[in-house]
Amino acid sequence: MGHSKAGAMLCGAVALAGVTAFGCGSQGGGGGGGIQPQQMADALYAVIAADRATYAGQVVDRLVKENAIKATERFKEEKTLPLPAQMLRMGAEHAQKTNSNFSYALLSMWPINQQNKAKTDAEKAGLKFVAENPGKNYYTEEKIADKTYFTAVYPDKAVAAACANCHNEHADSPRKDFKEGDLMGGLVIRIPVNK
Ligand code: HEC
Question: What is d(CA 192, CA 195) in angstroms, rounded to the nearest whole number?
């Protein structure tokens, strides 16, 4: 049986689970080419976006509608649910500890939290691109501290009225005219590539 095929399949499965980010392909000894950085970024995006939508819909929105519990920024003090963006960041920090090979973050040109501002040129270009090109993702390579990364930026949209309303009403939001369906930011996924 072709060892390279088994290797590639294992790599794919492992990458999807977010356990081994870039051990596949030439460097991981799996043989058979492994998966491309874009395929891996797209797969990670599918998982992160699915978790985000499920948490927002099945946990936050449902429990708010049932008047059971709200999601608020100071969730620890107020004994409420974390906001979807806070869930995403806690997940990203956890993943970083498990596997520091890749990273992801939810950023915006109109951030409530200054921590979520674009910092690198690729992040800035990516947020602008997804804002101006509905339905498209942004892919590029960038160098940070002598390391080359494949960097992908995916659109993050106001899938519910609550997204737009809460941001519009937040004192720290630099933008107050979000509507349902608007683009509110972008998910940045960064994967190191061997160069
Ligand atoms: C109840 C209020 C509230 C709701 C509902 C809400 N957000 Fe946010 N959102 C925030 C706050 C507060 C932050 C900053 C949190 C942080 O990073 O600590 C944030 C962060 C973000 C960011 C990162 C940029 C920034 O503004 O800091 C994006 C993008 C975002 N939210 C999009 C959405 C989308 C899309 C939805 C709906 C699925 C949504 N938000 C629902 C309050 C809310």
Answer: 9
